Amino acid sequence: MGRIALLPDEVASQVAAGEVVERPASVVKELVENSLDAGATRIEIAIARGGASLVRVVDNGFGMDRDDALLSLERHATSKIRTGNDLANIHTLGFRGEALPSIASVSRFRLATRPNDAIEGTEILVNGGKIDSVRACGEAPGTLVEAKHLFYNLPARRKFLRTENTEASHVQHQLMLQALGHPEVGFVLLRDQAVIFQLPPTRSLATRISDLRGDQIMKQVVEIEPTTVDGISIRGFLGKAGVSRPTRAEQIMFVNGRAVDNLTIQHALREGYHTALMKGQYPLVFLFLDLDPADVDVNVHPAKREVRFRNPDVIRQSLAETVRKTLDSDRGNWSRAFASPRSSPLLDVADFAPSPPVASSARAESVAPLVPLVEQFALRKDWHEFSQPQQKEDGLASPQIYRSETAIPVSHGSKTEAHSTRIPPDGRETPSSEFRLLGVLGKLYILMENEEGLVLVDQHAAHERILFERLRRETETAGVPCQRLLIPIVLRLPPKDHDWLLLNAPSLQKMGFSVEPFGESTLKIDGIPQFLRIEDPANTIRQLVDELRSLTSSTSRLRLGEDVIAKTVCRYAVKANDQLHAAEIGQLVKDLLACELPYCCPHGRPTMIQIGYSELEKKFGRKV
Question: Domains plus CATH for the chain?
Fold first, then answer.
């Protein structure tokens, strides 16, 4: 007797349902997507006991006649595709025809629907996948789907459900995604007959974000200027530099209106933010990508959460560049806010001189190792001629700041007018809000005043950013020196990684690695970057594979050494308790504003913090 047998229809339905319906939130997702595909402008969702007892979704969409309602409960019955070619050009959120029959097979199910032009509607009751009754009903135009006692016929699956609060939070998160992706649709969520949120339709994504997350979050993000690059439309909001989260939970990403998780997009975000994020932190984003459906494959996962791009490199490069431009535009807002310092009676900034340009070393074929490069920055007095070499016990030079004979007193914010000199980053006068240098707090924080309130600058973080960008530019211009190994390293790799590394050998050479083929799937490493202190070059090469893949073709491969640069300049930057001269403070602020990314240090910590008058008034009880 054969060992292979066909499964009964009931069992096959339950197996298929397990791929689509994982928990109540999955039911809500599938039903809401059907409502959106049906053109609904208002969707009401009700759950009880976290959705395990009841999930009800009511919409005002197109509705269905009796025949379509019955057919919708058959597996792989759909109105959204007709041929295999349609799978390559999907415009709807759903398309497989699996959601309704899967939900009906694991619940006590009710479907009531009525087209707009029909006198009566149709009601269908299903119990564990078997139709109990079909009759006429007088429901309002649209569709109502109700699933009670989810997994009642699958005790093993039901016991894996979490607590009511946990399941309800997953439902709420899923609805938040749908509401963000479709702000033009009104949403209502009821939990155990209590209204959780009621969102009216709006044309503004910012309004929908504020309705869901509160007004405070809009102060932490900057809007992406809607742009189209290589046929890819990019819009939404990005967290400002320095605003981050410990997980990717608040990376809200949509592709053609569908909430997705995608490594290509995550890599592009990381590259676009670059040193604007602390290591191990993730950006806060509300990101929308719209492109030709033929360039996106959404048929790769039962839940349709994952997608694949036909040209991932184009997506990554376009998005990374857009992120950089958006952050740079926000930098422009900071620059305009801080670009016109007005002198305080206690701090004269009228005689500030621009810092001299970084001089290139007279090196024709090679560049010195990284640490000596930083020493050269300290020795050349590149930082407004106030740094002098000081011999340490280890023989390395580091900058010593000239001390003021008297400490800089702290101004109390007097509005006394004084002669002022504008010092915008580009050296030109610009009509912008003015600020005054007030003093230094704790020999670390530079205090300034602008029209918004109080501004604090971390002098150590600011100097780190200045040294970092100068050193990085010089390193990229001169290249990374290669240190030859006395005994070459032979590295055996999987064929895929081996071929990929050979393809990117020129990039590795610019980074200071000397790599060449040495037999089948084997590489010989006979040189490493001179500044790189590594005990296991072979392991480093393996790590570079993943890191290089996350960079776009327009990105300098020398970025991979920036962690070392950042750690090194930290040693040579102005420290806490270093008491600065008044002119040094002014020049430090000016040099900081001239940086590409002035509002955070190379490690992602903020360099500047604004404390508004409204916040101060709350602290002093002037405002509630």
Answer: 9-199 (3.30.565.10), 220-336 (3.30.230.10), 340-472+570-619 (3.30.1540.20), 481-558 (3.30.1370.100)
